[in-house]
Design a protein that fits this description.
about 375 residues; Rossmann fold; alpha/beta; 12 strands; six-stranded parallel sheet
Length: about 375
């Protein structure tokens, strides 16, 4: 049965630069290469719906709910025959029940709908029972919503989390995070000179500064490494982060007297990314949590040797392509320090990690993920018209 061409309506963030914005841009560029995709139209996630505090959220609750209903209706009004939602809680107001309006948004959509889940909020061990129940209620209202035809995640761990919430196994697809094509690298010596890093060995933790990325482990590890080793935090505070996470990192650097060896670079524009990649000797990913990382994907695109925490998503990548990550035996500053020190003294191991990362990047390109995504679109539309 022919389903004709696909006109796609996508809910994502494009006006504010973030990982999902970049992800959507890379994916859409590949999808548009297929003749089956006639159009991709964007409904932009609003950047002003994250309310500061419960009182403000309650004050704006009904207006925000109506706003998301209207955005959901807009998804239908773009001439689309399929909807795709890029999901993060803050795109819909936040995590708490009085802030999150995903259900209101979904209630207005009248199209077969795919949701890519970039984030699944889970309670911490110390979370009170009342808060656990509220979070469970929010997650069920989102991920079990009958408007959703299918959900995409980027790790097997997230598939399992959705299944524990109650999503049927056959309603979830695991597409490993796409790797973008790298840009040409500049002369690293020139970049080092421009940045005042001549004669230095560079460790880079790339991407927005988030408490899930383990920056403190990297700072503490640096203290015991040779003086010529410097640490770059190549990213700024996330636009949705209103915590004191970044000031606390700066305080830790000051307490350890590492101001001359740790550089906070703020947001790195796309045209500057090759410069950072060109001077990085070892990339760090001591993450405590990830649902598939665009930052990690970029590091692999450039074939950087990566030291990573042994969390399940990283183990999944290593299982897919053995040798493309250098996994820590456990996540601690001491382990990270010892691992970095060993790699800095092993050019052969660094070269092997470089080659393996490039091989993984070629296999798991955005082109490949777009092919998987298109096949899913076609199956959903075929199912719709077979009734």
């Amino acid at each position: 049965m022919s389903i004709g061409t696909i006109n796609l309506s996508v809910f994502t963030r494009s006006a504010v630069r973030c990982g999902v914005s970049d992800y959507s841009r890379y994916l859409h560029a590949e999808l548009e290469r297929f003749p089956e995709i006639e159009s991709i139209r964007i409904v932009d996630a609003p950047a002003d719906v994250v309310r500061a505090g419960a009182l403000s959220a309650l004050e704006h609750y009904h207006a925000d709910k109506q706003r998301f209903r209207e955005l959901g209706a807009k998804m239908n009004a773009l001439g689309a025959n399929l909807a795709h939602i890029q999901f993060q809680y803050f795109f819909f107001g936040g995590v708490a029940p009085h802030k999150n309006h995903t259900a209101a948004f979904l209630s207005a959509i009248r199209l077969p709908t795919v949701m890519t889940v970039h984030e699944i909020a889970l309670p911490k061990p110390q979370t009170p029972l009342s808060h656990r129940l509220l979070l469970q209620s929010v997650n069920r209202s989102i991920f079990l919503n009958p408007a959703l035809s299918h959900l995409i995640v980027h790790t097997e761990q997230d598939r399992q989390r959705l299944e524990r919430i109650g999503v049927p196994h056959n309603k979830i697809s695991v597409f490993l995070h796409g790797i973008p094509a790298p840009q040409p690298l500049p002369n690293p010596d020139a970049v080092r000179k421009e940045m005042g890093l001549e004669g230095r060995r560079v460790l880079t933790l790339f991407g927005f500064l988030s408490n899930k990325k383990g920056h403190a482990f990297a700072i503490n590890a640096l203290e015991g490494l040779p003086e010529d080793v410097v640490l770059l935090f190549a990213g700024g505070q996330h636009p949705d982060d209103h915590t004191d996470y970044v000031p606390n990192l700066r305080r830790l650097v000051s307490q350890l007297h590492l101001e001359n060896r740790v550089r906070f670079m703020d947001y790195v524009p796309e045209e500057q990314i090759p410069s950072i990649m060109s001077i990085t000797d070892i990339a760090l990913a001591p993450y405590t949590e990830t649902s598939g990382s665009g930052s990690l994907a970029l590091l692999m695109a450039y074939g950087l040797p990566i030291v990573a925490s042994p969390i399940p998503p990283h183990q999944q990548i290593e299982h897919e392509a053995k040798g493309c990550l250098s996994l820590l035996p456990k996540l601690s500053s001491d382990c990270l320090r010892d691992h970095i020190s060993s790699l800095l003294n092993s050019p052969t191991r660094l070269s092997s990690l470089h080659d393996s990362a490039l091989a993984y990047a070629e296999t798991h390109s955005y082109q490949h993920m777009a092919e998987e995504t298109l096949a899913l679109y076609q199956q959903l539309l075929k199912n719709r018209f077979s009734f």
